[in-house]
Design a protein that fits this description.
Layout (H helix, E strand, L loop, with lengths): L1 E3 L2 E4 L27 E4 L15 E4 L1 H8 L10 E4 L9 H12 L1
């Protein structure tokens, strides 16, 4: 959901065969415009994550993969790299509201 220019809220589906847990995510972005884009994954439900200990997201870049294929970058990782700036993991307002509803019912 577009929140404002170059900022989006992303909602995850629950993992299969769980009680509503979210352990991983995947999405694709295509853009010709350079610059920073902010993605807010707003319905994480775990109280803690490796993101709080410095883990960064895995990003696949088709441009980096092409450069690796040409020998301009290491082929070790192909187009994959770790990235993301200002990663913050916290329960969102949405998740707090869900916990409150669960306590009432």
């Amino acid at each position: 959901v577009k929140v404002k220019e170059r900022e989006y809220d992303l909602y995850m589906r629950s993992d299969s065969n769980t009680r509503g847990h979210h352990q991983w995510f995947y999405f694709s972005v295509t853009s010709e415009v350079k610059g920073t884009v902010r993605f807010n994954i707003v319905n994480f439900t775990k109280r803690s994550s490796l993101y709080t200990q410095g883990m960064r997201v895995a990003i696949y870049s088709t441009k980096k993969a092409e450069k690796a294929a040409k020998g301009e970058l290491s082929k070790l990782y192909g187009g994959w790299h770790r990235g993301g700036d200002n990663i913050v993991y916290k329960l969102s307002k949405l998740t707090h509201e869900l916990y409150q509803k669960a306590r009432i019912t």
